[in-house]
Structure formats: structure tokens, C-alpha cells
Design brief:
alpha+beta; Phosphorylase Kinase, domain 1; 5-stranded antiparallel beta sheet; 5 strands; 25% helix; globular
């Protein structure tokens, strides 16, 4: 598992291999410093639920939600490429964004 860049500082995202299904997945965690904050945990669960309700080609699929050693996480589809923060920064600087296929 290796950490991936994430746009929201309250989250950690790691790239991992789903050994059973032989596919790369992204696993999102709350930062350890925020685990004890109920509001952060509630938002994290709300985010996962919202993503799980959406079925659209531009939204990654949620595969599972769980908790290990008191740390909530969710496993989602891994999509290689740039992240939204880089796209936004480019747009702010007036750079042309690459077309989406």
C-alpha cells in the first residue's frame, strides 16, 4: 500500500491491491489526529454514503466501508491520473485543461 496525493487534508488515500479480485483499489482513511472527533467521523460516513448512492461515469464506485482498530475507511475504485486539485490549480492559472475522453 502506498499513499496517494489527496485534495482534502483531513483524509489519507492509499493505493492497494485487492488480492481476491486482482485489481488496484484506493482506500480512504480519516487522518489519525481526527479519529476521536465525532464530527469528522460523521462527515466521513456521509461522504461514503453519498458516493455509494451515485452511479455515474465521473464518480468512483465505493466497494466497501469498514473500520479497523477504531479507524474508519472505505475502499473505492482506483482511477489513475491527475487529481482534482491539480485541475483546479491549472484552471486558476489559466492553463487549458486536457479533454476528458
Amino acid at each position: 500500500m502506498r499513499e496517494l496525493p489527496e485534495t482534502v487534508s483531513r483524509r489519507l488515500v492509499a493505493l492497494a491491491m485487492d488480492e481476491r479480485l486482482q485489481r488496484e483499489v484506493a482506500i480512504k482513511f480519516i487522518r489519525p489526529s481526527l479519529i476521536s472527533r465525532e464530527k469528522a467521523r460523521s462527515r466521513f460516513l456521509s461522504e461514503a454514503r453519498a458516493m455509494a448512492r451515485v452511479h455515474h461515469e465521473n464518480v468512483v464506485e465505493i466497494y466497501s466501508f469498514g473500520e479497523t482498530d477504531g479507524m474508519p475507511y472505505f475502499v473505492m475504485e482506483y482511477v489513475p491520473g491527475s487529481n482534482i486539485a491539480l485541475w483546479i490549480n491549472d484552471a486558476i492559472r489559466g492553463q487549458v485543461l486536457p479533454p476528458v475522453d
